């Protein structure tokens, strides 16, 4: 069974710090990885996608992928209170899978 | 481009009733998926439709059903509602030719069963 694991948190960081969110997955042939942000009571919003090993940067966000270690992370630089949300990791396996497997999410709290 | 639209936003139903939720995907998107989200279980996949055909199905009882129309709009129906069906129901669409395109979620329908 394909699994995606995230620490539920909460992860608490001070404003201006780097928040590091981690996700591990069990299916070695997974191909595509996404990070979603979900504010309380709202729907998930896509913030990053990554397909190849290494880092991908978009503004204050950096996604890091290590397929050998089956690990994907999201770094948020200069964290702001508005970044306080739950962050969901989603993973697609290969081989005709049209449905991603979601982790349960990590709650991030950025305090002033 | 308009996003994924779900109606209604909120619903209150009584146990034993049935409910129909609606979803309009992003224009041009042919795949529509439905998810149930509860605090205890996270995002649970219900089913996915592509070109009016159910392509994937999650592990939910037969009380949960769906369909997709020729314009890609989708509906989800839950019959004989139970208290445990109270949840946020999310619809997501995806486009492109790649099977692993990202999902784009609607605002959800908050269902409360009393």
In short:
With 112 residues, chain A is mostly beta strands.
Describe the model.
The complex is a heterodimer of chains A (112) and B (114). Chain A is built from no helices and eleven strands. Chain A has 112 residues and is mainly beta. In chain A, strands 2, 4, 5, 9, 10 and 11 form a six-stranded mixed sheet that branches. Chain A has a five-stranded antiparallel sheet with strand order 1-3-8-7-6, with no helix packed on it. In chain A, a hairpin with an 8-residue loop joins strand 9 and strand 10. In chain B, 0% of the residues lie in helices and 53% in strands. In chain B, the strands form two sheets. In chain B, strands 2, 4, 5, 6, 9, 10 and 11 form a seven-stranded mixed sheet that branches. In chain B, strand 4 (31-38) and strand 5 form a beta hairpin. In chain B, 37% of the residues are buried. The A-B interface holds A 31-32, 34, 36, 42-46, 49, 88, 90, 92, 96-100, 102-105 and B 31, 33, 42-43, 45, 48, 50, 55-56, 88, 90, 99-100, 102-108.
């Amino acid at each position: 069974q394909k699994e995606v694991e995230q620490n539920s948190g909460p992860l608490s960081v001070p404003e201006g710090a780097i928040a590091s969110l981690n996700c591990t997955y069990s299916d070695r042939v997974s191909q595509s990885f996404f990070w979603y942000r979900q504010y309380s009571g709202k729907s998930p919003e896509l913030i990053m996608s990554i397909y190849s090993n290494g880092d991908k940067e978009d503004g204050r966000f950096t996604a890091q992928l290590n397929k050998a270690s089956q690990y994907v992370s999201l770094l948020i630089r200069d964290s702001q209170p508005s970044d306080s949300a739950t962050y969901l990791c989603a993973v697609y396996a290969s081989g005709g899978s049209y449905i991603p497997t979601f982790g349960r999410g990590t709650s991030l709290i950025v305090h002033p | 481009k308009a996003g994924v639209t779900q109606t209604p936003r909120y619903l209150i139903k009584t146990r034993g009733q049935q409910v129909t939720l609606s979803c309009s995907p992003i224009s041009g998107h042919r795949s529509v998926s439905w998810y149930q989200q509860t605090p205890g279980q996270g995002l649970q996949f219900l089913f996915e439709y592509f070109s009016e055909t159910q392509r994937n199905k999650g592990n939910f009882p037969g009380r949960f059903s769906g369909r997709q129309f020729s314009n890609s709009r989708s509906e989800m129906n839950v019959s004989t509602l139970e208290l445990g069906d109270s949840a946020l129901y999310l619809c997501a669409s995806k486009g492109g030719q790649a099977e692993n395109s990202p999902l784009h979620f609607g605002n959800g329908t908050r269902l409360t069963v009393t």
